[in-house]
């Protein structure tokens, strides 16, 4: 897996990088939350803007992004609006979703922007080109809160993300039993062994899926989400517990 270096963070190399989500709803809450999570030493911070009360105000988004990026300094920032159909907190029109992502990319204040695979191939390719012009990286993502697709389907989605030019591919699935976790891990290791040129992030959500959030160094998931003030998905454990396990794993792990 080729490594992607964003600021000083080497994604796809060594210990999986810990991403802490910001889930505040107001400017004040978000800025306080940001200070709080900085103490947890995140490798990367994700702003889950679908939780933000003023997400439909582009000027408010731009000004908050500026404040966040100036406070985060060398910590990369991901901008994510998780759509309602993929588990997000707010429903917005598709046109606005696209306008929002475009505005964020053009501010150049987020290092990475998340776009969902089902947005459509043509649009995604346009966003990848726009991001590259602006020095921003694209995570193409997919979330299944109902089930775990078959291994071939998971691989197909991750490969499609790569073919569309995304810089990182991410899939989150919901396991119904232990076998589903093996399916997700099997798809992940299969993709890792293809040795394509960009990092993957995979996870099984909910309490059953916890092992997938801890074992990325072995199976090939380059980043893992840990909760700061509030978890952004079921199954996320506190970031400091997560880091402890990742460190123990890394200490005794030999490639
Ligand atoms: O895509 C993801 C992964 C995630 O859903 C998780 O399961 O940790 C959490 C989200 O905030 C993030 O955008």
TrEMBL record:
Catalysed reactions listed for this entry: 3-dehydroquinate = 3-dehydroshikimate + H2O
Top EC class for this record: lyase
Top-rank taxon, per record: Bacteria
Active site: 143 (proton donor/acceptor), 170 (schiff-base intermediate with substrate)
PROSITE patterns, sorted: DEHYDROQUINASE_I (PS01028)
Keyword Lyase appears in the UniProt entry: yes
InterPro entries registered for this protein in UniProt: 3-dehydroquinate_DH_AS (IPR018508), Aldolase_TIM (IPR013785), DHquinase_I (IPR001381), Type-I_3-dehydroquinase (IPR050146)
Residues that bind 3-dehydroquinate: 46-48, 82, 213, 232, 236
Record flagged with keyword Ribosomal protein: no
Biological process terms in GO annotation: 3,4-dihydroxybenzoate biosynthetic process; amino acid biosynthetic process; aromatic amino acid family biosynthetic process; chorismate biosynthetic process
CDD domains according to UniProt: DHQase_I
Keywords for the protein's UniProt record, in alphabetical order: Amino-acid biosynthesis, Aromatic amino acid biosynthesis, Lyase, Schiff base
Gene3D superfamilies, per the entry: Aldolase class I
MF GO annotations: 3-dehydroquinate dehydratase activity
Enzyme Commission (EC) number: 4.2.1.10
Pathway(s) the chain acts in: Metabolic intermediate biosynthesis; chorismate biosynthesis; chorismate from D-erythrose 4-phosphate and phosphoenolpyruvate: step 3/7
Family the entry assigns: Belongs to the type-I 3-dehydroquinase family.
Subunit structure: Homodimer.
PANTHER family xrefs: 3-DEHYDROQUINATE DEHYDRATASE
Main function: Involved in the third step of the chorismate pathway, which leads to the biosynthesis of aromatic amino acids. Catalyzes the cis-dehydration of 3-dehydroquinate (DHQ) and introduces the first double bond of the aromatic ring to yield 3-dehydroshikimate.
Name this polypeptide is given: 3-dehydroquinate dehydratase
């Amino acid at each position: 897996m080729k490594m992607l270096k964003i600021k000083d963070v080497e994604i796809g190399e060594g210990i999986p990088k810990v991403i802490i989500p910001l889930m505040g709803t107001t400017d004040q809450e978000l800025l306080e939350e940001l200070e709080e999570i900085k103490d947890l030493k995140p490798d990367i911070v994700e702003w889950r803007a679908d939780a933000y009360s003023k997400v439909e105000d582009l000027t408010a988004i731009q000004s908050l992004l500026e404040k966040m990026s100036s406070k985060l300094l060398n910590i990369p920032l991901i901008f994510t609006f998780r759509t309602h159909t993929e588990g997000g907190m707010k429903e917005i029109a598709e046109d606005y979703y696209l306008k929002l992502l475009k505005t964020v990319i053009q501010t150049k204040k987020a290092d990475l922007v998340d776009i969902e695979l089902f947005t459509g191939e043509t649009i995604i390719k346009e966003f990848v080109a726009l991001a590259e012009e602006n020095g921003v990286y694209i995570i193409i993502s997919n979330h299944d809160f109902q089930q775990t697709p078959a291994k071939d389907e998971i691989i197909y989605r991750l490969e499609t993300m790569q073919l569309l030019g995304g810089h990182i591919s991410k899939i989150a699935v919901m396991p119904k039993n232990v076998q589903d976790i093996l399916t997700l891990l099997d798809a992940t290791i299969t993709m890792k062994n293809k040795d394509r040129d960009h990092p993957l992030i995979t996870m099984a959500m909910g309490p059953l899926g916890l092992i997938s959030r801890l074992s990325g160094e072995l199976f090939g998931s380059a980043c893992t989400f840990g909760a700061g003030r509030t978890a952004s998905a079921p199954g996320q454990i506190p970031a400091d517990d997560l880091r402890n396990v990742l460190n123990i794993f890394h200490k005794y792990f030999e490639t």
